[in-house]
Design a protein that fits this description.
By secondary structure, the protein is of the alpha+beta class. It has 4 domains: 98 residues, PAS domain (Beta-Lactamase, 2-Layer Sandwich); 106 residues, Beta-Lactamase (2-Layer Sandwich), CATH 3.30.450; 80 residues, Helix Hairpins; 151 residues, 2-Layer Sandwich (Heat Shock Protein 90), CATH 3.30.565.10. It contains 13 helices and 17 strands. A hairpin with a 6-residue loop joins strand 9 and strand 10. Helix 11 runs antiparallel to helix 13. Bound molecules: adenosine-5'-triphosphate and magnesium ion (MG). Adenosine-5'-triphosphate (ATP) binds next to helix 11 and helix 13.
Length: 478
């Protein structure tokens, strides 16, 4: 029996120590000796050094022999009868881990208390979600005192606008036990509204994974929202102003074009009319026909300009018509080039080249003809007489590639940026007539075909326009 008792004492995880009334250690079990970092026999007979009061519990720091470390120990003391009188039985338990954990928790608590973000804990009771903790920032943000907050269901934070989708998402997460984040409009205790970002994280019981709590974090983002709203408004105004400036510039360019380009044909019509009226009866039949032809040509020219203006404005509003059919591009392009060559036989050489025998593409014949006609007419009118214009058609990586290259006046870098804007004309066009609408129409046509347009130019050397159009793959190389 005695042996059994000794075994129990010696194996006990807690240290057991007997100290007599003079403070001398009379018995030490191995667990207690281990706390001192010594053997029991080295301790028996030594002076214990800590005051002992029967029935009391105290926390002491023991110096571990050898390592010099301090071990936090909880000591419970009872008075007992010992062989030669009264003594104290001290039960010692190492609480250093517990102390460390407490220190960690205290640090975390201070952190949560000092946080500028509102932090709250909500417990899960049936359908209610009462707050059981709210840090001081929650009070600062919401304006409610801690005791008020603790009596509330956390949903009061976002209940001021129950139909809002973000608020409903938070409600759903609270019932489902899922995490959620939302930016919501809330109301402070004084009725003032504010914006908050809320993050909800569900907490589950470690053992049975039961949902027990939610941790909520609340950031006041009112300033940010106002700044964002101001920024968006500023951007909106500046976009509107920019649009207005553009419209004004467009109008100016339109009026400039109209006064330049309408004046000449109108003057020529007027001249022909006056000649016919004044000298009509004296003029020969041939002269009369010349005046009439001149009137007709100028009227056609005016009709073309109006047609271009209409095309551009229709294209701008996305109403342009596009009816593609599969076209043999080689024949189609060669025809256009040949017609140009006939008209400009005296001034330019237009060379046509193609690297395939078949290139087929879905093309709106009328639309693409207008685009190519404008590019060819630009190449001719902006290059000196006697120079060459090269028209090349190729097939490359599933695309038809058309390049029109001239040896003309070129385009300055400044004009390059605005080349496709309606009514924009280069600063180096001098007296060459034009409305500045041709390239706008080219661009609209190429876009309608799902293609691209690129320009390369050197002032005084020449310009190359390159169009790519999606083509129909024909088996085998041509
Ligand atoms: P139009 O509406 O009668 O075609 P335009 O030729 O002036 O008038 P665009 O075809 O849109 O108008 O061309 C816009 C401007 O781009 C021209 O005014 C000219 O400055 C420049 N440009 C276009 N093509 C060439 C080119 N091949 N060489 C040099 N400049 C060119
Ligand atoms: Mg043109």
């Amino acid at each position: 029996m005695l042996n059994t008792l000794l075994t129990i004492i010696n194996r006990n995880a807690d240290g057991i120590l007997v100290v007599d009334e003079d403070g001398v250690i009379r018995f030490v079990n191995p667990a207690a000796a281990a706390l001192f970092g010594q053997q029991p026999r080295d301790l028996v007979g030594e002076f214990f050094g800590f005051p002992l009061i029967g029935g009391e519990t105290a926390e002491i720091n023991l110096l571990t022999h050898g390592t010099g470390e301090l071990v936090a120990v909880e000591m419970r003391v009872v008075e007992i009868d010992w062989v030669d009188g009264r003594a104290y039985l001290a039960s010692l338990r190492d609480i250093s881990e517990r102390r460390q954990a407490q220190a960690d928790i205290a640090l975390r608590n201070r952190l949560i208390e000092a946080s500028g973000s509102g932090i709250f804990i909500t417990s899960v009771e049936d359908d209610a979600r009462p707050m059981i903790y709210a840090n001081p920032a929650m009070t600062a943000i919401t304006g409610f005192g801690t005791s008020d907050l603790l009596a509330m269901d956390c949903r009061f934070l976002w209940q001021c606008n129950p139909d809002d989708a973000q608020n409903q998402a938070l409600d759903r997460a609270l019932l489902d036990g899922s995490p959620a984040s939302a930016a919501i409009e809330c109301e402070r205790a004084n009725g003032a509204s504010y914006w908050a970002e809320v993050h909800l994280t569900p907490i589950r019981d470690q053992g049975n994974r039961q949902l027990t709590h939610f941790i909520g974090v609340l950031h006041d983002i009112t300033d940010r929202m106002y700044l964002d709203a101001e920024r968006i408004e500023r951007e909106r105004i500046s976009v509107a102003l920019e649009k207005e400036r553009e419209l004004r510039a467009l109008k100016d360019r339109f009026l400039t074009m109209m006064s330049h380009e309408l004046r000449t044909p109108l003057a020529l019509i007027r001249l022909a009319h006056d000649m016919l009226r004044q000298y009509g009866d004296k003029a020969s039949e041939e002269e009369r026909l010349q005046y009439l032809d001149s009137i007709r040509t100028q009227v056609e020219h005016l009709t073309d300009i109006l047609g271009d203006v209409m095309t551009v404005s229709r294209g701008d509003s996305g109403e342009a018509e596009f009816s593609p059919e599969i076209v043999d591009l080689i024949t189609y392009c060669r025809d256009i080039v040949e017609q140009f060559q006939i008209s400009y036989i005296k001034t330019h050489v237009i060379a046509f080249k193609c690297n395939r025998s078949v290139i087929k593409a879905p093309v709106d014949r009328k639309l693409l003809r207008r685009a190519l006609t404008n590019l060819l007419s630009n190449a001719i009118k902006y290059s000196p007489d006697g120079s060459m214009v090269r028209f090349t058609l190729a097939a490359l990586d599933g695309e038809a590639v058309i390049t029109i290259q001239d040896q003309g006046i070129g385009i300055t870098d400044e004009d390059m940026e605005r080349l496709f804007e309606p009514f924009h004309r280069g600063r180096n066009v001098e007296t060459v007539p034009g409305t500045g609408l041709g390239l706008t129409i080219v661009q609209q046509a190429v876009r309608a075909h799902g293609g691209t347009i690129a320009v390369e130019s050197k002032v005084g050397k020449g310009t190359t326009f390159k169009l790519t159009l999606p083509m129909v793959e024909v088996r085998g190389r041509g």
